[in-house]
């Protein structure tokens, strides 16, 4: 790279190729396209940070409203019932951060310390982070484009002082876009155990979830398995009507076709929604519900799957 | 057929309605589709623009998944879902080589496609264009609002379910509308109770009351509650015309009411 201008902003700078001093530089095009940029140093920083985190699980879906946050919250509750297990729940849904409400932590604020941001602790062994804690009003909208959302996710992964954690659960927004790419990219060097993918039995949901499974394959993210949520509601009075019918075979057929594990099916219990609205654990509200039993079985399978994988550290690059 | 010049492909579109929510899975695509069907039944020509690039649901709901999109002089020809050509649709779903292919794009690329969808689809003459959006308040929403601004959209239908978790996100969407100067036509509460067709027992699966309360808090009209109806759900799965097939459904009055409100607000034709 000869003839570099005097005030070259640096090839990995945000101004690379764009600054006034870049005009006429033979590498301007290269820099402006970002091709010359070095890998983001945050990736190494996050890898260091994640050394104290044993297992990392992403909760995904292609589809909105299938119960990712509900599931993430209850996965966290379930794992944290063992007080010797340290659990962290990270909500990277920047536009629609539901986790504070579901965990009963609305209105909490995040504090800074010398070692970074402190998560909000629901229990001694259950810490939570969400953009929701950074907003001053429930009406505040986070109207950010992709790059700014990515920056926030980077900060969450790099600057939150999680401490020693057994399970980091990352709740994501619907889709296959910036947030998902960033989470996978930033955690690339830190080894993600895998993704738990949530769906409902309907084809309109499965159609998006197949895309999400393809996304996981594309970015080499292992799939721990699929959870079919809202599975089989029956009218509590007459037991006759069903609502979210598996018209194309539901998750079971999809999992068989795409050769991914089906972790379990959670029936639709109206008390789940109410618990989430109140910010309480559904397990405490309805310990004998078939939904609780289903959740517990799924959580156990996830734990088993995680323990089969290398407990981080080794050169098992996640992507 | 004039040469491509301002105001371009939206020149023949009388009214534009956006369907938004902060929350995923509340029924934006369902409401968009049902609104289009209801307007069609009122004799109108309707277009649907599906700007959910990651999860394009509408082609399947209208049984046109897998159709090809053709080019003409003015751009892309939208896909007609019926013989009479009274409903046309554009979705990224038609541009995918394989239906399970994921659109894994970051913001800037999504913005570019949305701009193209707004300017390069040859809609022709339409009474209403219904724009279905993905959940959130991000790239797609900013791109579509910016691109549609010169055409003065009628406003936004904002969809929620009754639960507080949903309302919590949709409040932020209403703030978004205010910030970008997009008028809110009203709030629709979807999945509002399930009335069992066998025994008439009403189960509030996703709680109750949130939508109306939200509308009141935000000072916008409440357009109605659409109950959960398995027939509606099944129709969408199978690409059937619900409005035609199920006028006795408990969901029908609410959906008709929403359509009527649009027709009253923005009449088309002799008046």
From TrEMBL, chain A:
Pfam families noted in UniProt: ParA
Protein's organism: Balaenoptera musculus (Blue whale)
UniProtKB keywords: 4Fe-4S, ATP-binding, Cytoplasm, Iron, Iron-sulfur, Metal-binding, Nucleotide-binding
Gene (name only): NUBP1
Cofactor binding mode and count: Binds 4 [4Fe-4S] clusters per heterotetramer. Contains two stable clusters in the N-termini of NUBP1 and two labile, bridging clusters between subunits of the NUBP1-NUBP2 heterotetramer.
AAA+ ATPase domain: residues covered: 54-210
Record protein name field: Cytosolic Fe-S cluster assembly factor NUBP1
GO biological process: iron-sulfur cluster assembly
GO molecular function terms listed in the Swiss-Prot or TrEMBL record: 4 iron, 4 sulfur cluster binding; ATP binding; ATP-dependent FeS chaperone activity; metal ion binding
Domain of life per record: Eukaryota
Known role: Component of the cytosolic iron-sulfur (Fe/S) protein assembly (CIA) machinery. Required for maturation of extramitochondrial Fe-S proteins. The NUBP1-NUBP2 heterotetramer forms a Fe-S scaffold complex, mediating the de novo assembly of an Fe-S cluster and its transfer to target apoproteins. Implicated in the regulation of centrosome duplication. Negatively regulates cilium formation and structure.
Quaternary state and interactors: Heterotetramer of 2 NUBP1 and 2 NUBP2 chains. Interacts with KIFC1.
UniProtKB/TrEMBL annotation, chain B:
Binding site for ATP: 22-29
Record-listed [4Fe-4S] cluster binding positions: 196, 199
Keyword Amino-acid biosynthesis among record annotations: no
Pfam families reported in the protein's UniProt record: ParA
GO cellular component annotations of the record: axoneme; centriole; cytosol; nucleoplasm; spindle pole centrosome
Keywords, alphabetical: 4Fe-4S, ATP-binding, Cytoplasm, Cytoskeleton, Iron, Iron-sulfur, Metal-binding, Nucleotide-binding, Nucleus
Cofactor binding summary note: Binds 4 [4Fe-4S] clusters per heterotetramer. Contains two stable clusters in the N-termini of NUBP1 and two labile, bridging clusters between subunits of the NUBP1-NUBP2 heterotetramer.
InterPro entries from the UniProt entry: Mrp-like_CS (IPR000808), Mrp/NBP35_ATP-bd (IPR019591), NUBP2/Cfd1_eukaryotes (IPR028600), P-loop_NTPase (IPR027417), YlxH/NBP35 (IPR033756)
Cofactor: [4Fe-4S] cluster
BP GO terms, sorted: iron-sulfur cluster assembly
One Gene Ontology MF term: 4 iron, 4 sulfur cluster binding
Family the entry assigns: Belongs to the Mrp/NBP35 ATP-binding proteins family. NUBP2/CFD1 subfamily.
Record's function text: Component of the cytosolic iron-sulfur (Fe/S) protein assembly (CIA) machinery. Required for maturation of extramitochondrial Fe-S proteins. The NUBP1-NUBP2 heterotetramer forms a Fe-S scaffold complex, mediating the de novo assembly of an Fe-S cluster and its transfer to target apoproteins. Negatively regulates cilium formation and structure.
Quaternary structure note: Heterotetramer of 2 NUBP1 and 2 NUBP2 chains. Interacts with KIFC1. Interacts with NUBP1.
Protein name in UniProt: Cytosolic Fe-S cluster assembly factor NUBP2
Native species: Balaenoptera musculus (Blue whale)
Taxonomic lineage from the root: Eukaryota, Metazoa, Chordata, Craniata, Vertebrata
Gene this protein is translated from: NUBP2
């Amino acid at each position: 790279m000869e003839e570099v201008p005097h005030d070259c902003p640096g090839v990995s700078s945000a101004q690379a190729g764009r600054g006034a001093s870049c005009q006429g530089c033979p590498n301007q095009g290269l820099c402006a396209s970002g091709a010359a940029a070095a890998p983001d140093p945050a990736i190494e920083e996050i890898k260091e940070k994640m050394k104290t985190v044993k297992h990392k699980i992403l909760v995904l879906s292609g589809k909105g409203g299938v119960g990712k946050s509900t599931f993430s919250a209850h996965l966290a509750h379930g794992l944290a019932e063992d007080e010797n297990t340290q659990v962290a729940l990270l909500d990277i849904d920047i536009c629609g951060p539901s986790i504070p409400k579901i965990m009963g932590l609305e209105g909490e604020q995040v504090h800074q310390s010398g070692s970074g941001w402190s998560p909000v602790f629901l229990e001694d062994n259950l810490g939570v982070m969400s953009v929701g804690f950074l907003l001053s009003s429930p009406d505040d909208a986070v109207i950010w484009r992709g790059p700014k959302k990515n920056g926030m996710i980077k900060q969450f992964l790099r600057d939150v002082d999680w401490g020693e954690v057994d399970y980091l659960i990352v709740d994501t927004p619907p889709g296959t876009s910036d947030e998902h790419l960033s989470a996978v990219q930033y955690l690339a060097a830190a080894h993600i155990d895998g993704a738990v993918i949530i769906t409902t039995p309907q084809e309109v949901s499965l159609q998006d979830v197949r895309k999400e499974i393809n996304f996981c394959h594309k970015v080499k993210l292992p799939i721990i398995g699929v959870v079919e949520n809202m599975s089989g509601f029956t009218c509590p009075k007459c037991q006759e009507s069903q609502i979210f019918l598996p018209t194309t075979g539901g998750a079971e057929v999809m999992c068989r076709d795409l050769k991914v594990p089906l972790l379990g099916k959670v029936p639709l219990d109206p008390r789940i929604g109410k618990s989430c609205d109140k910010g309480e654990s559904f397990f405490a509200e309805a310990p004998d519900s078939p939904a609780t039993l289903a959740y517990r079985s799924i959580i156990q399978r996830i734990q088993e799957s995680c323990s089969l994988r290398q407990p981080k550290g080794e050169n098992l690059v996640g992507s | 057929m004039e040469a491509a010049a301002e105001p371009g492909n939206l020149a023949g579109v009388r009214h534009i309605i956006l369907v938004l929510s902060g929350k995923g899975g509340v029924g934006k695509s369902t409401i968009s589709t049902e609104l289009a069907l209801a307007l069609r039944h009122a004799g109108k020509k309707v277009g649907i623009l599906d700007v959910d690039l990651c999860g394009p649901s509408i082609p399947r709901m209208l049984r046109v998944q897998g159709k090809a999109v053709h080019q003409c002089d003015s751009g892309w020809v939208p896909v007609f879902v019926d013989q009479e050509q009274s409903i046309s649709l554009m979705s990224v779903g038609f541009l995918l080589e394989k239906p399970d292919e994921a659109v894994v794009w970051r913001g800037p690329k999504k913005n570019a496609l949305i701009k193209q969808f707004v300017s390069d689809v040859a809609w022709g003459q339409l009474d209403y264009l219904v724009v279905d959006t993905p959940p959130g308040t991000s790239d797609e929403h900013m791109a579509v609002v910016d691109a549609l601004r010169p055409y003065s959209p009628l406003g936004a239908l904002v969809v929620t379910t009754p639960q507080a978790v949903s309302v919590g996100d949709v409040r932020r969407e209403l703030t978004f509308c205010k910030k970008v100067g997009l008028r809110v036509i009203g709030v629709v509460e979807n999945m509002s109770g399930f009335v069992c067709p066998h025994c008439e027992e009403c189960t509030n699966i996703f709680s109750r009351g949130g939508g109306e309360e939200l509308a009141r808090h935000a000072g916008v009209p409440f357009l109605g509650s659409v109950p959960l109806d398995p027939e509606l759900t099944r129709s969408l799965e199978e690409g059937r015309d619900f409005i035609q097939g199920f006028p006795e459904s408990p969901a029908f009055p609410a959906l008709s009411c929403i359509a009527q409100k649009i027709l009253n607000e923005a009449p088309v034709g002799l008046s």
